[in-house]
Amino acid sequence: MTPVSRAAAVSSGRPEPTTPWWRDAVFYQVYPRSFADSDGDGIGDLAGVRSRLGYLELLGVDAIWLNPVMRSPMADHGYDVSDPRDIDPMFGDISDLDDLVADAHARGLRVVMDLVPNHVSTEHAWFREALRSGPGSRARRRFHFRDGRGPDGSEPPNNWPSLFGGPAWTRITEPDGTPGQWYLHVFAPQQADLNWDDAEVVTDLEKTLRFWLDKGVDGFRIDVAHGMAKPSDLPDHDGWEANELLGHSPDDPRFNNPEVHDIHRRIRQVLDDYPEAVAIGEIWVDDHERFAEYLRPDELHLAFDFHLTLAGWDADAVRLSVEKGLAAVAAVQASPTWTLSNHDVDREVTRYGGGAVGSARARAMILVALALPGAVFVYNGAELGLPNVDLPDEVLQDPVWERSGRTERGRDGCRVPLPWEGGEPPFGFTSAPSAWLPQPPEWRALTVEKQLEDTGSTLSLYRRAIELRHERAEFAGDEIGWYGSPPGCLAFRRPGGLTCVLNAGKVPVELPDGAVLLASASLTGRTLPPDAAAWLV
Ligand code: NOJ
Q1: 239 and 167 both lie in a single domain
Q2: Could you identify the atom of ligand 1 that is nearest to the CA of residue 118?
Q3: What is the Cα gyration radius of the chain?
Q4: Closest ligand 1 atom to the C-alpha of 119?
Q5: For 336-393, how does the pLDDT look when each residue is reduced to its tens digit (9 = 90+)?
Q6: How far is CA 439 from CA 37, 243, 400, 457, in A?
Q7: Residue-number span of the structural domain to which 253 is assigned
Q8: Are 434 and 532 contained in the same domain?
Q9: Does 187 contact ligand 1 (Cβ within 6 A)?
Q10: Is this prediction's pTM over 0.85?
Q11: Quick one: CA torsion of 214, 216, 219, 222, rounded to 10 degrees?
Q12: pLDDT tens track for 139-167
């Protein structure tokens, strides 16, 4: 599909003729704080995103996923929402969102917003009301308030830890000034978990969904989509891994409780009134059968598959991840999704070894991801080959840093603002002297400006790869067939005729038959060097 026909399809509201637009879309994840700043405060905003839509059109992506921009005290950079139906002044206002959606649609780009239904900020009107109201009150039932254990109630109600470190419970002071009940927060203390057994919690989310959908937003990425339902007795658990921050095991009682599926059905009923809207769940569930449950026809449309963010630089591990990703959706005929990085994990260049080697491997892996059937998510800056940044202690902002007692540095290193142009920080990201997290001077070689001019750059590789994926018939078909390949390599073929070869080994390998469509590194004859991938037709 050409950008022109995509624009026409979006602005007319007409559905795609055969498949839904999101099934094999390339989504570009915009971390709004770090993408582009329009007002000179050093923090990215919606008008900044709008001013760079031409870049995204040039890149060729189909849709933008915006991390949370709703009103928030920013204890977890927007994942602590205090008003789900307003835009935070840091990012602009409702009219900025309207303008962004209108301009994006005019360019053929869809806009997906982040939705945070598991918890709200402790600054949300509901939580403030709960603090003012006593134990057992209606206002407290919207959350998980419990009496503490021990003779004076001074111990948390159960032994659950927070994913960000420390206990998952915080004790409040009652309106009469006495030490009071505890509330549950699976993440930071400023993110109080909602009680999804409360009918008003459900109806309020429905209101929020319609509020944004009526504005023309094309769907939602749903945060912690496997976490909203909690077991009603909130039982102790004896299997906590020591210090397992930002992760959890399959039997963790905080996640993947069966009642969560009813919540997804309620969400889907609303989305079905907007036939082109998509719901994409953040589902950290490894078991295929349980993962697929979220993708039944009356639940989510897509769910993130994180296997590729976890696999190292190893052809067998990559192949296993791809097989798992395909198997996880096969039972429900859903579309697979592929993600190399996001705002919660180290950037792929760094994970694959950093430096020139890490960059080469990251270039190879985007060719693997874009060769696969299904939707692909590109985290802003991946297309520039940005690595993680080693930040000094004093600038760290992720709550994980303090909550872990400064043992875990958290996720700031993958959230450093993008370098757009020029020879020194802030590289056109902001008119302020510096960005909210400092950009390294070496990024002068990685600016958008530099890479657009260079046909060998990572940005040029992304542009060409996305263009070919949209245009070429060889990308057809929902399946892949594996080829036999030398140790350290993998090769697969799409029914349409595309072959993708990855060399994660240590020696150059001969390419199979076929004309080379694109390669992540320079080829000598028909030899693929290590740390490279190629597409053949
Ligand atoms: C997952 C989000 O991706 C992450 O950034 C956030 O901290 C947690 N959910 C809590 O909302």
Answers
A1: no
A2: 11
A3: 23
A4: 11
A5: 999 999 999 999 999 999 999 999 999 999 999 999 999 999 999 999 999 999 999 9
A6: 14, 30, 21, 20
A7: 20-119+199-465
A8: no
A9: yes
A10: yes
A11: -60
A12: 999 999 999 999 999 999 999 999 998 89
